[in-house]
Amino acid sequence: MKTSFSILFAVLGFAAPLVAQVQFQKGDSIAILGNVLPDRSQHFGWLETMITQANADKDLTFRNLAFSGDEVQTWHRVDNFGTRDEWLAKVKADVIFAFYGNNESFKGYEGLDEFKKNLDTFLKETQAKNFSGKAPPRIVLFSPIALEKLANPSLPPVDEKNTNLQNYTAAMSEVAAANGVTFVDLFAPTVQTASDEPLSLNGLYLNEKGDKVVAEAAFKTLTGEEAPQVNEKLRQAIVEKNWEWHQRYRTVDGYNVYGGRSGLAYAAGVGGFKQNERTPEKPYISNFQVMQQEMTQRDVKTANRDLRVWAIAKGGDLVVKDDNLPPVEKVPTNMPDPKEGKEFNKVPMTGMTFTEEGLIAIPDATEKMKDIQVHSGMKIQLFADEKMFPELVNPVAMQWDTKGRLWVSAWLNYPERTPTSPKGDSLLIFEDTDNDGKADKMTTFADDLNCPTGFQIYKDGVIVMQSPSLVYIADTDGDGKGDKRERILMGLCAADSHHETCYLSYDNGGAIYPSDGVFHRTQVETVNGVVRNTNGAIYRYDINRNELERFTTNATVNPHGKIWDRWGNSYFTDATGNVNTFAEASSCYLPREGGGSAKMNPFWDRPARPSPGNGIISSRHFPEEFQNNFLNCNVIGFQGIWRVKLSQDGSGMKGETVEDLVKADPAVYPTFRPACVSVGLDGALYFCDWSNAIIGHMQHHLRDPNRDHGHGRIYKMTYEGRPLLKPKKIDGESIPNLLELLKEWEDVTRQLAKVELAKHDAKEVAAAAKKWAAALDKSDPEYEHHRLEALWTHQWVDVVDAELLKEVLSSPDARARAAATRVLSYWKDQVPGALDLLRASVNDADPRVRMHGVRALSFYQPTADAEKALEIAYDVLKHPTDYYIDHVFGECRKGLQSVLKTKLLPKDPAALAEYITKTSDADLKGLPDIEPVLIEKLTRPKVAADVRANALTELVKLTGNDRTLEIVKLLQRLDAAGGRLNSTAEEIGKMLVLEIQGHLMRHREGILELATKGTQPPVIRAAYAALMITDSGPDEIWKSTTGKARVYLLEAIALIPSTKASLRAKCQPLLTALLQDGQADAATLKAVLAALPLMSPNQASANFAIAADHLIAGKERNAAAKALMKFPKTNWDAAKAKPVTDSVLAYAKSVPAGDRSKQEYVEIITAAKEMAALQGDAAASILKDLSAVSVDVFIVHTVHEQLRYDTTKLTVKAGKSFEVIFENDDVMPHNFVIVPPGKHMDIGNAAMTMTPDKVDKQGRAYLPAKFEKEIIAATKLLEPGQKEQLKVRAPNQPGDYEFVCTFPGHALIMWGTLTVTK
Question: Where is this region: Disordered (predicted)?
Fold first, then answer.
């Protein structure tokens, strides 16, 4: 089949001879910048080979600096990667090949001027540099190629895109000419006629043939000559050299090589590390030092291969020996060395044994089986380990194929390959051919990989993460080994190998989900534009449509687990905090760049962290109560797999921890680390054991020798007394047989049936699936699920069937309707009347269907139907909502509204009222001034005063009522709120007392009703204050009040504006009478004391004396102290000072130390300290006495993602009480524990072997019982965002005490000093 992509250059005018435009000089270094075109070309090597071959005597050096997704003005790289100019200087660029224009073209005609400006700036600034030290660089500017029009209906149309590309090519030509720069037009020779074979994978990513075609066109323009017949040996040598350079320039773990964690430094046996120490003093050695030495080795290896390239170009050859590599410093472990007879920071590593070399020994798997605790009724057996199969090392991911074989990713070179590693990481295939429960056959599918952290079965091979690409490795000859590789996505980041794509899972409709963690800088070039992301994200990749989108950025510090259940509900697990989310609710539309998902609550309160993987039990081998249970692996503290019962929670799901599936006591088997779990085709559960002493990114050097490279285990778990399933035959089966497998209960079988179906012709599969669905037995209890599988099969092969979709959307089973609505979100552009269908979903009786309807509407954000979509989304507010619906609606509305020119509100009154109550304060401020909005602005707590005042003004205009009446009506509304809006009532009450007296008089009856019949104190107080203003004094209303009402009246005095001071003064006789009577109860006395400072200045001295006397006498001490502090200092009587301080000191000694941080106490002490200052020479001594009964308060925060407190030193006085307010701002749990001098590691190490269920009497985890008497104080283990106040009395003995986080592994570095002074 022909595809539109020209290779007939003659018809485009290329028959005429061209004049050479670039003359290369001997020793030239050519640096290549740009987008996916040159990034991809380095792996084919055609243009470089042609140029090298034509300049064989010039020893040219090529270094590719291109990144998928680059634009002329962007440089999206990991922290401290180096600027574009720094890299051009590093490679000493004499010539620069710059490929731009493709990604910029997606901004269309409107972006042309900006592009030309940016390109002109780049050329001028670059021409002014001298990177080689010889002369300014000669620049060659390459245009983008035309997108190829392929005969693939799943791919988007390219005509409009090619029009943009043509415009941008013309702009580049213009700018190049203006700057005297050589320009190579690659668009013209690739835009017309046809090829018998595709020249690209997707219209953009060139295949090997396409790269050759483009190289030939570029070569002819550059040299004026026809492209030569390429020396294949030379090309392969160039490809090998480029691969070495690629490993250096695009190194894995860049954040540890040159980013933030490169500055972590370690020392042998010390534990912990220093931060921001790239070049520390010995004995410390940093990540930066070692990894830069490795980078130097890669530079030398690349240069060695340059020599071979030059030799072959000249007709010879040479053997690359790499015997000239500079050394790399050997890294010692910061774990203990028992040969030196020392313990690890005074505490032995419980449960650890050691090799003769002083490294931690990984125990024998068979011998340690007895120490693995399994779920009641279940048994466990060793399926495979490193003794059976030495290649099984560090298993990090697992999948099942259509032949019933278990595939495992073995990460031999964890955390990444060194420049000299002789063997790469592997994809291994295990089989149990004799059905004895143990693997007896292993096939290596691929063994020259680097960090294959995630992979998935696809057609006749696998898609595997090979940073920075997703690579499809196919077995084309059926020998069980991968023999063809194709990069299908380029630009995924691996700044931290722990954080790159893990568990590359399918959803029910066939999309797969790559991911990023924190520190990453991904930019993937696609036929629809660049997907660019900073830090963590989970992506959805539609393989058929070759479309990548950001699915969610919520809970993506280090996303590891991604799993779907039988009804299409997704559950994502972030490893760092083991945060587990119901992901469907966090996956509203995200643009290709910018913005992110709002944080969402987890669906399950996990007991501990971190988690490397998750799973779902779907197997008839297990009892009914196991079905659809969520499984969560954990590797610190609790080292095992939790079993979690799932149940519907409104529109979402919730989890409940039940009996643990499997675990080992860290004190007995500390290297047991379940990393991933899966149900096999026989119905048994299988899980991989990472079998490593080290878990964690930061705690140990990247090259710590205790990062094990020799062990790995796979276990099989079964339920006793229940037969295993007979695996279904899938591989090679016919379409009808495969469709029947969609009726199977087991998720793995149905998924693999769809994987196998995808090998067949898509139209045939879709037609057969529809026919199969029509013939299903409607009386079958599973009918609705079977029909849903038919719909998912259509999605898997990308054949849209609107009729079948509508049938499932009308299913009586809400779960099917919800799943179908999700399908519609991805088919909306091909389904007529999609918005009408979504309106039905949004108004469905089931909350989950409504949630999915709103989510689907969010995807209209970049379309012309955004306004209509938002109108429909508002319908969800006509129905009851819950947490998940509110979350999704908020995200959907925010996105859709962002592209509209005016604010759009619900038209339905009930929906409008509900919407307004759910609107954020920021959004509320921008809503139009209609009555419901104005009422909300006036009654919502914490609204800014100017916003509230403006709202009142607009409300008065709108209603035609006077201000006073509207304020009274507002107070009536607030009083009816039952206390929920009392803070607002206080603000509105302040408005009332500022009203004109005459207006207040007009509405006296209504105000009196608020005072006498109101129920909320702020409303009553405001009404009494207004009545005193109305009546020009308190006498009349005073007569009608007693008891509590009189207290409110007294408290209302404070609301009388200062401009009416004379009115306040009229209350003095009433206060005096109450005090002289001596019968005032406590509440009345407090109110009187509070009112005294508000009286006339003439009465201030006398009233001060009254307050002081009450403080001296201890009558309502706190109220008296607060009153005293409000009097002007000029009215203070020094004669009262000593009696006050004597009284307070006597009182303070009676207050328990634990109560001295209470606000009331602090206020009394503060008043006494002020009085002490009036006592002349005695003041210092008295202040010292008062300080002795005061409490110090410290606030300590955790630092995000750095495993440390924000302060490492606190100072207190011996025996003195103090308070610590501990706030956890990190993404993982922490506590704050105060311990004796030198004990932080003793206690921290003892906690290493504790599980989170082992709590003390106060419910605090990770506090070892044997140190109970030594622990001075401790908070609970706080989750992210939580805080706790810790009240402590300092030890009597001075010294350097310590505070520490005792969560397993944290004590090494997360501690500080509490200095206790005399």
Answer: 324-343
Closest to 362 measured CA to CA, from 717, 641, 706: 706
Residue 307 sits in the same domain as residue 401: no
Give the separation between CA 954 and CA 942, rounded to whole angstroms. Answer: 19
Q: Note whether residue 1115 is domain-resident.
A: no
Helix extents (H) in 540-590: none
Cβ neighbours around 287 below 10 Å, total: 27
Cα within 13 Å of Cα(1231), Cβ side: 25
CA 905 vs CA 934, 940, 974: distances in Å: 14, 19, 25
Quick one: pLDDT at residue 14?
Answer: 37
Which pLDDT belongs to residue 711?
98
Q: What pLDDT is attached to residue 16? A: 37
- CATH number for position 1212: 2.60.40.420
In a domain, 1215, yes or no: yes
pLDDT digits (tens, 9 = 90+) for 1185-1232: 998 998 888 889 988 777 889 888 998 999 999 999 999 988 789 999
Range of the domain at 837: 764-904
> 623 burial class (0-12, 13-18, 19+ CB within 10 angstroms)?
exposed
Q: Identify which of 323, 316, 306 has the alpha carbon closest to the alpha carbon of residue 237.
A: 306
Q: Are residues 672 and 789 in the same domain?
A: no
Pull the structure tokens for residue 137.
Answer: 């660089």
Q: Where are the beta strands (DSSP E) in 270-400?
A: 285-286, 353-354, 360-361, 372-374, 378-385, 395-400
Locate the DSSP E strands across 499-586.
515-516, 521-526, 529-534, 537-542, 547-552, 559-564, 570-574, 579-582
- Given a contact cutoff of 8 angstroms between Cβ atoms, the answer to whether 968 and 985 are in contact is no
Residues 421 and 547 in one domain: yes
Q: Where are the alpha helices (DSSP H) in 843-939?
A: 847-858, 866-873, 883-898, 909-918, 921-925, 931-939
469: its two tokens = 């690409």
The distance between the two most distant Cα atoms of the chain, rounded to a whole number of Å, is 117
Q: What is the rounded distance in angstroms from the CA atom of residue 1148 to the CA atom of residue 1162?
A: 10
Q: What is the pLDDT of residues 474-504, one digit of tens each?
A: 999 999 999 999 999 999 999 999 899 988 9
Measure the CA angle with vertex 69, ends 63 and 70; round to 5°: 55
Contact 1074, 1094 (CB under 8 A): no
Query: Considering the domain boundaries, does residue 1088 fall inside one?
Result: no
- Is residue 636 within 8 Å of 610, Cβ to Cβ? yes
Which portions of the chain are predicted below pLDDT 70? 1-20, 193-194, 336-350
- The three-class DSSP label of residue 733 is coil
Alpha carbons 23 and 1309: distance in angstroms, whole number: 58
Q: Say how many residues make up the chain.
A: 1318
- 947, exposed or middle or buried, with CB in 10 Å at 0-12, 13-18, 19+? middle
pLDDT for residue 337: 61
Q: Are 1161 and 1155 a contacting pair, CB within 8 Å?
A: yes
Say what the pLDDT of residue 422 is: 94
